[in-house]
């Protein structure tokens, strides 16, 4: 039984494991926590769709060590990230920054939504105006309708 | 006015086709990252020399344009470009310097002993820190640096004969004259 519990425990903890190796961790838990936050926001340039926190690639390891060194040396989070952007460009950021090159990315979808909304409104408005208010029947038409209803067409 | 609406799909199609023409052109790798280091000073380095008591330092290389090639013995595409590097050094006599990226010095030395050594000097970057400072994300990578130490050009992946003849050599010639 104890063996079973132990195995289950190991299995459960294995899920939470990351690529960060024990030897990489900083002694100071506050610094280590900051390093983890930064790592989760950086793209691994070899695998390109993983953060360096998750990636087992060699380069990801190097960048994790680099981030920890910078933090230990007294960098703020922003300074450590900027040091990497200076080397690799803003592509290392998993969340792209808002800058002229990414305007289409950030503002394109809301713009398209806006165009669609305006187009729909214009279309709806135009459709409504035509059949909305029919003119009341003239005296002649009213009489003819009466006749039709009674079944005696004139 | 009404008629123009019927041209809209055509215009949209032309726009898309134009985009794909640019984005999917041959020899264009979408995974290749634009370098932010172009026109910026090369990061300083002072590396232990491979089989050479003299270190490989950026400061010592300034004064003439030169080429830095990041390589490793474990890197397969490096073998691919190796004959081209030999040609560059033996026929074109370009100032080519190597940086052994994340490689055991003994392995780098064996590679150069077996296949020939195209480099004037080789620096050992075993922990990859100089590579990281350059923004290297895979070997081989090749950098053209001018006499003031400014990075002028970066080649990601193995050099090709076409890239060498059409870009690298003309650029070096231009840098050497100015």
How would you describe the overall organization of this protein?
The complex is a heterodimer of chains A (154) and B (178). Chain A has 154 residues and is mainly alpha-helical. Chain A folds into two domains: 15-97, Helicase, Ruva Protein, domain 3; 101-150. Chain A is 60% helix and 0% strand. Chain A has six helices and no strands. Chain A has helices at 2-15, 29-40, 58-72, 77-88, 103-129, 139-150. In chain A, helix 2 packs across helix 3 and helix 3 (58-72) packs across helix 4 (77-88). The longest helix of chain A has 27 residues, at 103-129. With 178 residues, chain B is of the alpha/beta class. Chain B has one domain (37-177): Glutaredoxin (3-Layer(aba) Sandwich). Helices cover 42% and strands 18% of the residues of chain B. Chain B is built from six helices and seven strands, in the order αββαβαβαβαββα. In chain B, a hairpin with an 8-residue loop joins strand 1 (46-47) and strand 2 (56-57). Chain B is elongated and about 80 Å long. In chain B, 35% of the residues are buried. Chain A binds chain B through residues 45-46, 48, 58-59, 62-63, 66, 85-89, 91, and chain B through 31, 33-37, 102, 127-129, 132-135, 137-138.
Structural key phrases:
heterodimer; A: 154 residues; mainly alpha; Helicase, Ruva Protein, domain 3; elongated; B: 178 residues; Glutaredoxin; five-stranded mixed β-sheet; two-stranded antiparallel ribbon; 18% strand
Please write out the topology:
The complex is a heterodimer of chains A (154) and B (178).
Chain A: H1 2-15, H2 29-40, H3 58-72, H4 77-88, H5 103-129, H6 139-150
Helix pairs in contact in A: 2-3, 3-4
Chain B: H1 2-23, E1 46-47, E2 56-57, H2 58-61, E3 66-71, H3 76-90, E4 96-101, H4 105-115, E5 121-125, H5 129-134, E6 141-145, E7 151-156, H6 161-177
Parallel strand pairs in B: 3-4, 4-5
Antiparallel strand pairs in B: 1-2, 3-6, 6-7
CATH topology of chain B: Glutaredoxin
Rg calculated over all Cα atoms of chain B: 20 Å
User: From the coordinates shown, what is the CATH architecture of the largest domain in chain A?
Assistant: Orthogonal Bundle
Give the name of the CATH superfamily of chain B. Answer: Glutaredoxin
Shape of chain B: elongated
CATH hierarchy, class of the largest domain in chain A:
Mainly Alpha
CATH topology of the largest domain in chain A: Helicase, Ruva Protein, domain 3
Figure out the total of helices of chain B: 6
